[in-house]
């Protein structure tokens, strides 16, 4: 199976996810968090560094659980553009014109 290249938006979202997980982990050991979540430390390192921009949902759910993060909070955080304009309920950002 050929994997399509990531879009710039997906790469940016992966970087925001990594930053969120690093902040939530704080001074706790990457090894401890990874083992408690049932993922390899290498997987967690790659996610935190943004090298894996689109990790599997169960992986993120397990890590978020160990870190005490709700999936809603994770979703909201990683979908915030740098400018602070978030997605609307329609899935479009406030700056995007809707197609007629």
Quick structural summary:
This protein has helices at 8-25, 30-37, 41-49, 57-67, 71-78. The protein is an all-alpha fold and 100 residues long.
Write a concise keyword list for the protein shown above.
single chain, 100 residues, 5 helices, globular, disordered C terminus
Question: What value does the Rg take, in angstroms?
Answer: 15 Å
Helix content: 40-55%
Proportion of beta-strand residues: under 5%
Pattern of helices and strands: HHHHH
Query: Number of helix segments?
Result: 5
* Termini gap: 36 Å
Count of DSSP strands: 0
Q: Unreliable segments (pLDDT under 50, ≥5 consecutive)?
A: 85-100
**How many strands, which pairing sense, and closed or not: the largest β-sheet?**
none
Mean pLDDT, all residues: 84
The secondary structure category is mainly alpha
Overall, the morphology is: globular
